[in-house]
Design goal:
Length: about 240
């Protein structure tokens, strides 16, 4: 029986990994075990919206990564135009021996009560897929495997191209791509907010509400974007 210390350890040690060792294979059994965990994810109305495509073929994986790099071009251009800097996660996932394509079937929205369907069909659908995806990451980590989110898999260009390439029919949607493999090396944990900063007891403690300054400080120092933002500021100061 998994205890809280083991569960906490698993949640703390799991990392998003962006560099993979292509020479190390991942067994069929490992992928089955991971997807077995995903299948027990909670979902709105138990609609279980997920389907998975397991891609191992090297040529296909590299084509997927090429499509990813192409869709990145306007994304980078937009950040450059607005922020003057653009640092996106790269295509290291091409070397992961398995690409899991996480699909959702929106027809399961019919399993929700009518009012739920009208009010929050989309968020319930996405939440179910998110829960399955998180379990995939945790299960992979528990097996000593590395994984990552490639959320641009559902950007219009990449989703369209992947659907054609992999024969994914309508009305299925691509949610995310999750590469699975062995990490090239360890990575440091990105910072997390402290419990005291965001937990409120009995009622909301307004003294903890971040002002504009606090929020921009947070974004600039403790988020993924912040790392990039910090480097940009340093460059500006040097220049
Ligand atoms: C909805 C969502 C989308 C994400 N998209 C990407 C992505 O496209 N590429 C990537 O490398 N990481 C992506 N991530 C991973 C986050 O950057 C990562 O979880 C965060 O920086 C914390 O790092 P950690 O996962 O190592 O704890 C995504 C995470 C979530 C939940």
């Amino acid at each position: 029986m998994l205890n809280i210390d083991e569960l906490r350890q698993l949640t703390i040690q799991r990392r998003s990994i962006r560099g993979y060792d292509e020479s190390r294979e991942v067994s069929h059994e490992a992928i089955r075990a991971i997807l077995e965990c995903a299948r027990w994810a909670p979902s709105g109305g138990n609609g279980q919206p997920w389907e998975f495509v397991v891609v191992r073929d090297k040529e296909t994986r590299h084509k997927i990564a090429d499509i990813y790099m192409k869709q990145l071009e306007p994304k980078r251009e937009m950040d450059l135009a607005v922020r003057g800097t653009a640092k996106m996660t790269g295509d290291g996932f091409r070397h992961a021996p398995v690409h899991l394509i996480i699909l959702g079937d929106p027809r399961v929205k019919e399993s929700y009560p009518i009012r739920t369907k009208l009010e929050k069909a989309d968020s319930h659908f996405i939440t179910g897929l998110a829960n399955a995806t998180l379990l995939i990451h945790l299960a992979a980590d528990s097996l000593g495997l590395a994984s990552q989110y490639v959320s641009d898999a559902n950007s219009p260009y990449m989703e369209t191209m992947l659907k054609v390439m992999l024969g994914i029919p309508e009305p299925l949607r691509i949610y995310h791509l999750v590469p699975i493999g062995y990490a090239k090396g360890p990575v440091a944990a990105p910072p997390r907010r402290e419990l005291e900063e965001f937990v409120h007891y009995e009622k909301y403690d307004v003294s903890k509400l971040r002002g504009e300054e606090g929020m921009s400080q947070f974004i600039m120092t403790r988020t993924l974007q912040g790392g990039y933002g910090r480097r940009r500021l340093e460059e500006e100061q040097k220049g």
